[in-house]
């Protein structure tokens, strides 16, 4: 067990480096009672400084961020320093991501998406990735992103996208923060969908003021 006791204890970029490429990790946060969101129905209402350090580190070493459209809307995602790939079966670009510089936001959708034409107008045809006819094929999406040179991929959920990444065998790692809080209620877990059992191997565990920060690799 590695213990994180201060901002200068370890080089987090080295600790969280991908063991090989291409590599797709999913970064999530949860409370001790299993909630993925807090009082504002966002993950931001349960995160803390330790989680923010890891969040910033992972974005700093990634080539692109993959996020579900629902999460992008709820968390009010905005264009970032690295490309944001929005996964949406409908192909609708979240309002807060419209108007980004060309190539900073991509839409990953399917050919039958209701809003695919609008997405192409907003983002440019080269930045709308079609994967499958009626359901987004995440295996194909990963392949196309790797073909663009983006080999270190970071997904930030949400719970339904994480479920599909696991079901389709695309996720290589779960990077999860467990904050020392109990919030009760009926909010989402970090994985939402039909039952699907995925074995994981713990590779690293950090602790800071009761917050646990772990890396689990998907067992192949």
Structure description:
- This protein has 220 residues and is an alpha/beta fold.
- The chain has two domains: 21-63 and 151-220, 3-Layer(aba) Sandwich (Dihydrofolate Reductase, subunit A), CATH 3.40.430.10; 76-145, no CATH class.
- The protein is built from six helices and nine strands.
- A nine-stranded mixed sheet has the order 5-4-3-2-6-1-7-9-8, sandwiched between helices.
- The longest helix is centred in the N-terminal third of the chain and has 13 residues, at 49-61.
- It is globular.
- The two termini are 23 Å apart.
Q: How is this structure best summarized?
A:
The protein is of the alpha/beta class and 220 residues long. The chain has two domains: 21-63 and 151-220, 3-Layer(aba) Sandwich (Dihydrofolate Reductase, subunit A); 76-145, no CATH class. The chain is built from six helices and nine strands, in the order H-E-H-E-H-E-E-H-E-H-E-H-E-E-E.
SSE layout and pairings?
Blueprint: H1 12-15, E1 23-31, H2 49-61, E2 64-68, H3 69-74, E3 84-87, E4 105-109, H4 116-123, E5 128-130, H5 138-147, E6 152-155, H6 159-167, E7 173-179, E8 200-208, E9 211-218
Parallel strand pairs: 1-6, 1-7, 2-3, 2-6, 3-4, 4-5
Antiparallel strand pairs: 7-9, 8-9
């Amino acid at each position: 067990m590695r213990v994180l006791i201060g901002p200068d204890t370890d080089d987090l970029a080295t600790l969280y480096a991908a063991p090989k490429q291409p590599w797709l990790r999913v970064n999530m946060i949860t409370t001790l009672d299993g909630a993925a969101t807090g009082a504002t129905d966002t993950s931001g209402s349960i995160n803390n400084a330790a989680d923010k350090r890891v969040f910033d580190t992972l974005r700093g070493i990634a080539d692109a961020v993959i996020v579900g459209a629902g999460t992008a809307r709820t968390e009010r995602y905005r264009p970032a320093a690295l490309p944001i790939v929005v996964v949406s079966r409908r192909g609708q670009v979240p309002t807060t991501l419209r108007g980004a510089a060309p190539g900073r936001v991509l839409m990953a959708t399917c050919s039958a998406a209701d809003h695919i034409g609008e997405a192409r107008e907003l983002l440019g045809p080269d930045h709308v990735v079609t994967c499958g006819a009626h359901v987004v094929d995440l295996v194909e999406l990963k392949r196309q992103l790797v073909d663009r040179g983006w080999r270190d991929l970071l997904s930030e959920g949400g719970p339904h996208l994480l479920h599909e990444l696991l079901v389709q065998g695309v996720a290589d790692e779960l990077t999860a923060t467990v904050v020392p809080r109990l919030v009760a209620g009926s909010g989402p877990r970090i994985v939402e969908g039909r039952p699907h059992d995925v074995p994981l191997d713990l590779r690293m565990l950090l602790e800071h003021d009761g917050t646990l920060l772990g890396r689990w690799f998907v067992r192949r």
